[in-house]
Design a protein that fits this description.
Shape: elongated
Distance between the termini: 42 Å
Number of strands: 2
Number of helices: 2
Low-confidence stretches: 107-112
Strand order of the largest sheet: 1-2
Helix content: 55-70%
Number of domains: 2
Mean pLDDT: 76
Order of helices and strands: HEEH
């Protein structure tokens, strides 16, 4: 009997040590995850800012090359395009009109769509 109790005590001690090690590893992983999550958010913000900077650069260039155009005017909207000599909202265009515009312009058809992603918040869950 004493031998069995001793074995149980040894196993409990090993399990407690293993549990403590796992908790420490889990805490380290949580800290790393938090740092990576913060870095990813910073990178996303940087990408967005670079797009804004590029667009503003294009506006400055348009202003430089076309002095008579006031790009600050509210009628200039990035969601509009020129079709048949008119400024129209892209949402109002049919697929055929978009394809025709791209054929005339020599571009490739790019379809924008909403993308939904599953993001795990807690790295310890499956």
């Amino acid at each position: 009997m004493a031998r069995g109790k001793l074995g149980v005590l040894i196993l409990r001690k090993r399990l407690k040590k293993k549990n403590k090690d796992l908790e420490e590893n889990n805490e380290e992983l949580r800290e790393k995850y938090s740092g990576i999550e913060s870095e990813l958010e910073d990178l996303n913000n940087h990408v967005i800012q670079e797009h804004i900077n590029g667009f503003n650069k294009g506006l400055r260039q348009a202003t430089f090359f076309c002095k008579e155009v006031d790009v600050a005017d509210l009628k200039y909207d990035v969601n509009k395009d020129v079709v048949d000599g008119r400024l129209v909202d892209e949402d109002d265009l049919s697929v055929e009109q978009v394809e025709e515009m791209l054929t005339i312009g020599g571009g490739d058809l790019v379809v924008e769509e909403e993308v939904t992603m599953l993001v795990k918040i807690d790295p310890t869950t499956n």
